[in-house]
Every structure is written in C-alpha cells, then in structure tokens.
RNA sequence: GCCCCUGUAGCUCAGAGGAUCAGAGCAAUGGAUUUCUAAUCCAUCGGUCGGGGGUUCGAAUCCCUCCAGGGGUGCCA
C-alpha cells in the first residue's frame, strides 16, 4: 500500500472536470515539508492559477470542496498562497500501523510488474587478492540485489570475473619459477596469493594496475606467459584450469565473510569463444569499421572510438561486455542490467550502451556508479607504505577494531564499578565480526553513492552518531530492557 | 583541448527533479545528573547552500557562466 499514490488518485479525481489533464497536477501532492502543516500537501493550485485565470486560493477552495473526506482523510486546510494541507485521521493511521507491524513485509507491497534484473557487481580480477577497490561494488551490489528481490523482482546476480587477464601471466611465471610444493599441497589458495605477490615484488614499479611494461624483463616474461595461454598453449591452459578452483576459493573466503553470494560467475574466459563473432557481426552491420589497423566503433566527433579488436588481433573488454549483454539477454531474459562499477568507467559504459542499442538490444542498461574510498589524506585509500589495502586484511582490522570498541566499553563499565561475567570466546568472536563487518557495510551504504568518502575506523565504529555500531548497541539494549521487563 | 562528476554548519553528510523559516550526527559551548549490573539527558552556538547572472508566483534544487577539487580521454581492464 502506498498512501501517497492513493491520495494522488483522490486528487486526480477531484481535478477531473476542473482541468483538461489532471495527472501532472495530481502528482504534485507530496509529503508535507513540515509536520506542522499536516501529513501531505498538494501544491497544484498555484501552478493552475495561470492556466485557469483564477486566484490560487480560490482554486484550492474549489479542489478542497471536491475532495472526499472520510475516515482516512480529515478536512483539508488551505494555507499561504494556496497550499492544500492534508492530515490523515489518527484512528485510521493507527490501524494501518498495527497492520504493518504484524506483516512480515512491514506493509511494503510487491511491485505490480516484476522485471528480470541482472546485477553485475564485485567483478574482481581473480588469481590475486581482492582489495579495497572491490569493497563498494560488492556491498552496494549485494544491497541492490536484496532490495530488488524484496520488491518482488527476479534478480540474477553475476560476478563478471576477470579470469583471463595479464595476472595469469604473473601467476604462471610464479608457479613455474617460485612455487613451494609443500605449501601448495597444504594450502593452494594461500600459495597462489603468495606467488602473485612474490612476482609483483620483482616488478620495477609497484602499483595496483596490471599494466605490463615490456622494458622490464620480468614483466615481459609474464606478458609472454599470458600470450601463450591465450594462444592455447596446452601447458598453460592446463595450469589455468588447475588454478581456477583455487582462485574461486580465494574470493569466496571474502564473500563468506561479507555474506554475499552470486548465482553465476561467468568470467571473461567464458565469453572468449564468442568474441570473434561479435566483431564480425558488428562489422557486417556497419556498426564497426577498420581504423589504424584496429576495429572500432565511433561515437561522434568529440569522443574517442571504442576498440572492439586491437591491432594485434586481441579483443578488448568492450567486446567481452557486448558478448555478455548478448548472453544475459538470451539466457536470462534480462530486461534490466545494472553494472555496479566505479565512476571512472562512466565513459566506457556510455559507449558500451550506445553500441548495444545500435546492435538492436533494447534491454535497459544502467551504470550504477560510485565514488572512491579515500584515506585520511583524502587520496585513494592505501596502506601506510603506499601499498594496496587488501580486503581480507581490511576485514581483519574491522574485527580487531570491534574488539577494541567492545573492550573499552567493558572497561569503562568496570571502572564505574559495574561488572558482568565475560561472554564465551565463541560468542565474542561472533560479536566482533557482526560489529566489525556491519560497521564497514553501513559506513558505505549510509552515504551518497556517487561521491567519494573517507574511510575512518573511529568514525564508523563510534558508539554514537550515525553508525551501525550505535544501532546495534541500541537494538541490543532495547532487547535487554524487554527481556527484563 | 574536449567530456563527466563533485562543491550545503568547524567535520562527515541528508535535503525523493520547485513552494510553508535550509536539516541530522559528531565537534564546540552552557547547564543538569555523583550513579548498585553496561544507551547519559537538556539547551545553545554555528550556513550570503562555491561566486555571479537568468527563468518563475516561488530556486540549495532548473538554465547559463565563472571558480575550485576529482576523474576520464583508441590499442590495460
């Protein structure tokens, strides 16, 4: 049930006969700006003044006379230049609230027309540790998934893994030269992560991108290993197949901690066999053309083209994303695809969506973009020595921080002479996790999605203010009061 | 150069694409509370909504322009 829609419908009926097209005026009924003025307000009288050639207050009076009053709505009031203030009847409202409280869904109606959503989020490059850059996509994407499902839509979640990129050259090189066989037997996932970092440490320049500098001999060997894999070299393909389950385990460890799951994880490798057809179809339809040895799609004078095949014959992520749209529309019957990806890829998605439309896909495509996680210096969040913040380490720190918050609260109580039996270790562990992960998730979700935010442990785990920690504490205290009562 | 995003209180941010005083939390300041099993409470201070112009009965909100910060910008993804 939606009260605002119901009231708008009443207003629309009241306006029928007064104005030729009541719909746009009916939707000008909104929640009141200030509770002193009522619960809802209709603002259409002012904008109708010119159209009807009358005083706004006179129009408001006319509308009020035509509005039915019953046990739902009290007598409307006219205020100021012509606002119509509406107040819901208390008895009716109380009854509604009782109904909502007793309802499993708290009175939230399912959508009248469910749609098929595909939500593409998280999407890490596998074979290397997930890092802070994956945090927001994972949390926001998961929240959207839960919301759309709750509203009654069909949602397919798909983790579009980077499982075919240059990081495999790094792993292959590491595996062939630096592997610790015993460690591999004991914990292949951990060894894989170690090998990736080991080889990265041999690079001349350290940053978080997988860009290869061919003048660095180590990087050039890695590049060749990737090229061999892509060319179908049997040894590298076999190793890749052996690595994949370990790669999946590496990221699943993180998802288990965050309570996030996916229906599918069709990565880049899955679409690889389809890419040649995508390019030739785009060429046949005249959407893509040759330029400087590459195959590109143009987007107008002022914008760079999208490459769908590079000069060396390799395909790009645009090509993969096009194949992915095709697959999602045909296999999942996707009506809407949401991409929960960093705002820096805005241009890529704008171009991708243009090409998809030209290609004839009328699926609704939306880039759900978000800002960067910043450190205290307001620059992208890095470790103290300038390295990448790994997600696993960040979650460890969240748990450790929650423990400190708990213990200092307990110490404070003890100092006041209040003391209680310590919880069992297992319960404490769970407590720290719930508080720690909750704080990280809520700190992300409570802010404007599109802007950057500063990652601040103390602020997100404060026991007052707008934090998950405060809400969890308040909730726990409330439960305790009810228990004693 | 071109394109995109952001700019609201000291800080972090709300403000559902217009109207009836620009809000919250934190911080700060003043007061209350001296505590028998873990939540302090009340009040106050604080803003030419980045600057300027425009449209409108009405602009933080829409349009133009300038300034500041960030990002992107054909062979990484």
Keywords:
4-stranded antiparallel beta sheet, alpha/beta, 485 residues
What does this entry look like structurally?
With 485 residues, the chain is of the alpha/beta class. 51% of the residues lie in helices and 11% in strands. Strands 1-2-4-3 form a 4-stranded antiparallel beta sheet, with helices on one face. A 4-stranded parallel beta sheet has the order 6-5-10-11, with helices on both faces. A 3-stranded antiparallel beta sheet has the order 7-8-9. Strand 1 and strand 2 form a beta hairpin. Helix 3 crosses helix 4 and helix 10 packs across helix 11. The structure holds one RNA strand of 77 nucleotides.
Helix content: 40-55%
Q: Structural class given helices, strands, pairing?
A: alpha/beta
Largest sheet, strands/sense/barrel: 4 strands, antiparallel
Tally of alpha and pi helices: 19
Question: Into which percentage range does the β-strand content fall?
Answer: 5-15%
Unreliable runs, pLDDT <50, ≥5 residues? none
**How would you describe the oligomerization state of the chains in this entry?**
single chain
* C-alpha Rg (nearest Å): 29 Å
């Amino acid at each position: 049930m939606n009260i605002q829609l119901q009231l708008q419908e009443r207003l629309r009926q009241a306006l029928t006969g007064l104005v030729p097209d009541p719909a746009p005026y009916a939707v000008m009924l909104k929640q009141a700006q200030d509770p002193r003025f009522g619960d809802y307000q209709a603002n259409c009288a002012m904008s109708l003044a010119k159209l009807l050639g009358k005083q706004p207050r006179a129009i408001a009076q006319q509308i009020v006379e035509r509005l039915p009053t019953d046990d739902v709505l009290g007598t409307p009031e006219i205020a100021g230049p012509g606002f119509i203030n509406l107040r819901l009847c208390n008895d009716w409202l109380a009854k509604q609230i009782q109904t909502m409280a007793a309802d499993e869904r708290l009175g939230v109606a399912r959508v009248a027309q469910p749609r098929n959503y595909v939500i593409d989020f998280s999407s890490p490059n596998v074979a290397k540790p997930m890092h802070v850059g994956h945090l927001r996509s994972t949390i926001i994407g998961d929240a959207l998934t839960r919301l759309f499902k709750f509203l009654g839509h069909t949602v397919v979640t798909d983790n579009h893994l980077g499982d075919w990129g240059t990081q495999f050259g790094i792993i292959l090189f590491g595996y062939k030269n630096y592997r610790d066989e015993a460690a591999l037997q004991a914990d292949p996932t951990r060894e894989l992560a170690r090998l990736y970092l080991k080889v990265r440490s041999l690079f001349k320049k350290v940053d978080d991108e997988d860009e290869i500098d061919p003048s660095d001999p180590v990087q050039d060997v890695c590049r060749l290993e990737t090229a061999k894999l892509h060319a179908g070299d049997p040894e590298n393909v076999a190793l890749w197949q052996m690595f994949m389950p370990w790669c999946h385990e590496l990221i699943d460890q993180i998802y288990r901690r965050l309570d996030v799951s996916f229906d599918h994880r069709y990565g880049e490798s899955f679409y690889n066999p389809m890419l040649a057809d995508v390019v030739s179809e785009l060429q046949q339809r005249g959407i893509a053309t040759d330029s400087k040895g590459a195959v590109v799609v143009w987007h107008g004078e002022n914008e760079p083209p999208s490459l769908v095949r590079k000069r060396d014959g390799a395909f790009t992520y645009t090509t993969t994303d096009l194949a992915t749209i095709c697959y999602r529309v045909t296999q999942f019957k996707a009506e809407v695809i949401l991409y929960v990806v960093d705002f820096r890829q805005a241009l890529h998605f704008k171009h991708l969506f243009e090409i998809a439309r030209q290609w004839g896909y009328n699926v609704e495509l939306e880039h759900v973009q978000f800002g960067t996680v910043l450190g205290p210096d307001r620059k992208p969040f890095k470790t103290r020595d300038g390295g990448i913040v790994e997600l696993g380490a960040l979650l460890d720190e969240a748990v450790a921080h929650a423990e400190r918050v708990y213990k200092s609260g307990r110490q404070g109580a003890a100092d006041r002479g209040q003391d209680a039996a310590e919880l069992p270790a297992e319960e404490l562990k769970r407590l720290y996790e719930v508080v720690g992960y909750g704080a990280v998730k809520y700190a992300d979700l409570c802010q404007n999605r599109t802007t950057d935010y500063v990652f601040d442990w103390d602020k997100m785990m404060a026991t007052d203010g707008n934090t998950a920690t405060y809400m969890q504490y308040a909730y726990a205290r409330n439960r305790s009061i009810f228990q004693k009562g």
